[in-house]
Design a protein that fits this description.
Length: 259
């Protein structure tokens, strides 16, 4: 009995010691942010992308990728001898279909490798700066010549969230030099008028849609107050103290642009 008891204690100790190592980097591991420092590193990352394309799930009986893309219209239907048409039938894909799961798993591996490289290359940051400066200059030029400017945030693009539209007002104020009041006007009534619905929404008036938000602090003093909401009212529905799930990664990357 004592021997068995000692054995159990030993097994538990080994298990706990193994678990405690799961969150540790290998001694020769390289942190993500330091992984791409030279042209050679970039070349190796590109080789990794090509290697991911060689997955057996993309070039075996499951799916021969390039011919399928070339004959997309043929493979987009079920019929004849097409046994893998389900891959293109988005609404009917079942989790029990391991072939399709394997194909999409391999494709997402390729996508992840591409995103990993693009997010960490100086060229990508350089191109982003060109686009950013162009947008700011265009907005300033339009405002200086009396051309209306609207605000939007391209939800669905990388680092763009459903809850971060307030940042656009802050950027408009900081980089284009408009007042807090004008930024709020642009995001509400001017946007509505540019969209052709200025008589329906965009301002609090009798007969208009009563969509609105209530903030803890006054955004006329600091536009960042728009991120702390006490209440949202939309189409007759009221949500008190909304608490959307935030991405710490996005906040960490974007917050410096507000300073």
């Amino acid at each position: 009995m004592i021997k068995k008891f000692k054995l159990y204690i030993m097994l538990v100790a080994v298990a706990l010691s193994s678990v405690s190592c799961l969150d540790k980097m290998p001694e020769d591991g390289i942190p993500f942010d330091e992984s791409l420092q030279t042209v050679s590193d970039i070349n190796l990352a590109v080789i990794g992308i090509y290697d991911a394309f060689r997955s057996k799930y993309l070039y075996s009986g499951n799916l021969t990728l390039l011919p399928d893309i070339q004959t997309d219209l043929v493979y987009g239907v079920n019929g004849n001898t097409n046994v893998y048409g389900d891959i293109w039938r988005w609404k009917e894909i079942k989790p029990t279909n391991t072939d399709i799961e394997a194909v999409y798993g391999a494709l997402y591996d390729v996508i992840n490798r591409c995103n990993f490289m693009l997010d960490r290359t100086e060229k990508d940051q350089y191109n982003g700066r060109i686009v950013f400066d162009g947008i700011v200059e265009s907005a300033k030029t339009a405002l200086a010549n009396g051309i209306p400017v609207g605000l939007g945030n391209d939800v669905g693009c990388p680092y763009i969230t459903q809850y971060d539209f307030w940042r656009e007002l802050c950027y408009f104020h900081k980089y284009c030099g408009v007042s807090n009041q004008f930024a709020l006007y642009t995001a509400t009534l001017r946007n509505a008028r540019l969209a052709g619905v200025g008589d329906v929404t965009g301002s609090l008036e009798v007969g208009k849609s009563e969509d609105l938000i209530v903030t803890r602090q006054n955004p006329l003093d600091d536009l960042r107050a728009l991120q702390h909401l006490e209440l949202v009212a939309c189409r007759g529905r009221v949500v008190k103290k909304p608490a959307p799930k935030r991405s710490q990664t996005v906040d960490k990357l974007l917050d410096p642009y507000l300073e």
